[in-house]
Write a structure and sequence with these properties.
Layout (H helix, E strand, L loop, with lengths): L2 H8 L8 E5 L2 E5 L2 H12 L4 E10 L6 E12 L2 E12 L6 H18 L5 H11 L5 H16 L3 H15 L14 H16 L5 E2 L6
Antiparallel strand pairs: 1-2, 3-4, 4-5, 5-6
Helix pairs in contact: 5-7, 6-7
Length: about 210
């Protein structure tokens, strides 16, 4: 993955395409899924990426939630890169079931694209702006997003992430959602960015365009 491609994928979106969601007394900025699709197509080429729904259904513990598991595959500079993510959407009796599945799929696709850098800056900004007054579920969601990025790394890359943290932190403990400090936002941001960078150096399958 060249720096040029990474820069194009992770570039901030124009303000006019950003949307605002008011939730829990907070204003969250998000990018509509069609803009994420356009970014992938414009940077990678429409023929060089695709996604597959690996599974979908109602949550086993609370059936008013739809859960969708998406696999995003892309050919980047001749190599196949695969990312996976889960998305969820609440479904109530007066809602169209198809719309709920669509919303959950869109969320999963955006999360998978985020591991390639698309819209990652918004996740960082939301943590920075809302951390002080954010309810626990919001903070946990941000933390889970980082864990998703780090979870896609190989063991060798995880070692590289640990080495990065030692140099970055000067020996401080890694950020932990259970013991948040004043530097939590900056630390999680730095680790998330490094996880994305390391993921582009993953061992990938060469020249398998027919599989995408």
């Amino acid at each position: 993955m060249s720096e040029e491609i990474l820069k194009k994928l992770s570039a901030p979106f124009p303000k006019e395409v950003e949307s605002i969601l008011k939730k829990g007394g907070m204003e969250l900025t998000y990018i509509p899924v069609h803009e994420v699709i356009a970014r992938l197509s414009n940077v990678l080429g429409v023929e060089n990426w695709n996604y597959t729904i690996k599974s979908q259904g109602r949550d086993t513990k609370t059936d008013d939630w739809i859960i969708v598991h998406v696999q995003l595959s892309a050919i980047i500079e001749g190599s196949v890169v695969v990312r996976e993510a889960f998305g969820g959407a609440r479904h109530t009796g007066n809602m169209d079931l198809g719309d709920s599945y669509k919303s959950a799929t869109s969320e999963a696709l955006k999360k998978a694209a985020q591991t390639l850098g698309v819209g990652l800056y918004l996740a960082r900004d939301e943590i920075a702006l809302q951390l002080e007054d954010a309810p626990d579920p919001k903070v946990k969601s941000a933390w889970d997003n980082f864990l998703s990025l780090a979870g896609s790394l190989t063991e060798e890359q995880k070692d590289g992430l640990n080495e990065f943290w030692v140099k970055h932190s000067g020996g401080r403990p890694k950020p932990n959602i259970g013991t948040m400090t004043d530097t939590f936002v900056a630390d999680v941001t730095a680790l998330a960015e490094e996880a994305v960078r390391l993921s582009f150096n993953a061992t990938v399958v060469e020249d398998e365009e027919d599989d995408v």
